[in-house]
């Protein structure tokens, strides 16, 4: 009976932790993922818009390749929040994309693939359209062409303008608020029967995390990387990690960590996914207090 109770308690604790992320955090993280930041520094990319003919829904598939202003190609996994069916239109980076397409007519669904090659690379600030043609009875083929209809062009340009304004507001926040997170923050987090002692050090565009755990005899795990933040998002681009002073191989190849945060006076609250390193999931969320000379001397 005790074993059953213990397993139930462990299961409830894990589920409770997973469900602890607030709606605000989920929405903010999903919003941040649309701005495409594969490697630092975050680049101000150019985008285009794809109009979908009535009855068509489309979804980005696999990776896409986008192009920077200096013509460098980057392969980027499709962000999780973009792996969904869109039935009005899509904002995508200029470059090469692949799309799955669904066409609905009289409640009958027809599926297919639309992909464009290097010879038809999407151009910045352009508007494209996916439509279908009837090859034969009950047989439809999706086609991809530049948009020509004035209303569709206006729709696409308006969507691109809105996306650019939101992106610039997101990307420019850190430069306009350089000291918002500056300094050292400390806190504790309990998970199951373990206690994590956590420290964050924000220094310009650098972020250093140090975690210790009672169950691991307070052996330190340190993660370092480039820092980017908006009004409520923190992004860590992994560069180095150390476990007991030994460097962790492959940490710099991990995807960026995205966390949601709020800050009031000298209290910092962080939500989001946990930090992974040395085969251990490290607790890194919770409530943190800014370290000042006064608190250090107490």
How would you summarize this macromolecular structure in one to three sentences?
The chain is an alpha+beta fold and 298 residues long. The protein is built from four helices and 21 strands.
Question: Would you mind describing this structure in some detail?
Answer:
The chain has four helices and 21 strands. It has helices spanning 2-19, 23-33, 150-176, 293-297, and strands at 47-52, 56-60, 63-67, 73-77, 89-93, 95-96, 98-105, 108-115, 127-136, 139-146, 183-191, 194-203, 206-213, 221-229, 233-243, 246-247, 257-264, 267-272, 275-277, 280-282, 286-290. An eight-stranded antiparallel barrel has the order 11-12-13-14-15-17-18-21. A hairpin with a 2-residue loop joins strand 19 and strand 20. The longest helix has 27 residues, at 150-176. Residues 1-19 and 115-119 have low confidence and may be disordered.
């Amino acid at each position: 009976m005790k074993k059953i109770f213990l397993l139930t308690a462990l299961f409830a604790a894990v589920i409770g932790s997973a469900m602890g992320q607030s709606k605000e955090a989920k929405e903010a993280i999903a919003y941040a993922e649309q701005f495409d930041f594969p490697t630092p520094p975050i680049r101000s990319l150019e985008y285009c818009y794809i109009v979908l003919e009535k009855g068509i829904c489309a979804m980005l598939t696999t990776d896409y390749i986008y192009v920077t202003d200096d013509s460098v190609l980057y392969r980027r996994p499709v962000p999780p929040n973009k792996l969904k069916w869109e039935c009005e239109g899509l904002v995508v980076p200029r470059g090469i994309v692949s799309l799955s397409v669904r066409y609905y007519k009289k409640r009958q669904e027809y599926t297919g693939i639309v992909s464009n090659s290097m010879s038809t690379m999407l151009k910045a600030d352009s508007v494209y359209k996916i439509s279908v043609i009837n090859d034969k009875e009950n047989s439809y083929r999706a086609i991809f062409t530049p948009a020509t209809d004035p209303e569709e062009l206006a729709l696409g340009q308006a969507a691109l303008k809105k996306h650019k304004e939101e992106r610039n507001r997101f990307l420019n926040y850190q430069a306009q608020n350089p000291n918002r997170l500056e300094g050292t923050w400390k806190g504790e987090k309990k998970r199951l029967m373990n206690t994590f002692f956590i420290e964050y050090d924000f220094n310009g565009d650098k972020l250093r995390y140090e975690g210790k755990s009672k169950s691991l005899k307070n052996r330190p795990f340190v993660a370092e990387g480039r820092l980017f933040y908006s009004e409520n998002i923190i992004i860590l681009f992994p560069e180095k990690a150390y476990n007991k002073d030994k460097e962790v191989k492959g940490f710099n190849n991990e995807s960026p960590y995205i966390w949601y945060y709020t800050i009031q006076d000298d209290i910092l609250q962080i939500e989001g996914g946990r930090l992974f390193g040395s085969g251990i999931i490290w607790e890194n969320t919770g409530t943190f207090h800014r370290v000042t000379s006064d608190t250090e001397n107490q």
